[in-house]
Structures are given as C-alpha cells and as structure tokens.
Amino acid sequence: MLNILIAGPSTGASMNPVRTLGPAIAANNFKAIWIYLTAPILGALCGAGTYTAVKLPEEDGEKLSTVRSFQR
C-alpha cells in the first residue's frame, strides 16, 4: 500500500509492468521502457548475490542427508 501511495505518485512508475509495457509498445513510446526490462534481471542478480553472501557455510560433518536425487 505504501508503494502505491508514495512511490507511484513521486516517480510516475506503475506497480504492474504489464500495464506500462502494453500501452508503451502500442503507442510506440519507448522513452523509459528499458527500466522495466532490465530491473527484473538486476534484481534477481542482486538477490542471488545477497543470498550467497548471507548463507551460512555447511559444516563438513553435518551435511543434510535428507536431500536425495532422482538418479541413484
């Protein structure tokens, strides 16, 4: 709710990228379309990097044996 009330009016961005991309492509208006195409990729990379940095390393003797592969 705060995202809609604060970020939307101050930045002019929509909270649903499809509601922006569809009309922008139909109107041939590609002014700020790049942010909707690059932001999900950059967000995923930042999230994966943060997860890797924060994840605790496994101890050698305490590996989980409950995870099994489909291949035997």
Automatic annotation (TrEMBL):
Q: How does it sit in the membrane?
A: Multi-pass membrane protein
Q: What is its main location?
A: membrane
Superkingdom of this protein's organism = Eukaryota
One Pfam family hit: MIP
Output the Gene Ontology cellular-component terms. membrane
| Gene Ontology MF term list | channel activity
Cell compartment(s), UniProt: Membrane
Q: In the UniProt record, does the keyword Membrane occur? A: yes
Signal peptide: which range, if any? none
What SUPFAM superfamilies does the entry give?
A: Aquaporin-like (SSF81338)
Q: Mind listing the UniProt keywords for this protein, alphabetically?
A: Membrane, Transmembrane, Transmembrane helix
Task: Output this protein's name.
Answer: Uncharacterized protein
Q: Which residues cross the membrane?
A: 33-54
